Amino acid sequence: MREIKIFIIVAFIIGIIYYGVEPLAHSAMHPKTAPSDYAFRDLEKFGKIDLSNGNAELGRDGFATNCATCHTINTESRDDFHIRNPKTMQPVGENGGVVPPDLSNAGRIFDAEFLAHFIKDPVRASLLEAKFMVSCEGLSGEEEYKCNMSNEGKEIYPMQAFNGLLSDEEIANIVAYLKSIAPQHISDKEVFIEACNRCHAVQYDKNQYDSKFFSIHNAKVQDLLNKAEKESEYDFLSSLDSENTAFLQLLLSMQKAKEKAKLTESEIDEQNDMINAKTIQDYGVVTLLQQSLKESEFNPNGLQAATQPAFIKAYLGNNPPDLSMMIRAKGHHELSAFINNPQKIPLDDIKKAIINKLVQEKQQAEKDALPQDLTEEDRKARMKAIELKDANEYGIKLPENTTKSPWQNDDDYTNMAREMGVMPFGKSMPRVGLTKEAEEQIINYLETIGDSKKTQRDSLGTWIIGFFIILSIIAYLWKSKIWKDLH
Question: pTM, whole model, 2 decimals?
Answer without folding.
Answer: 0.83
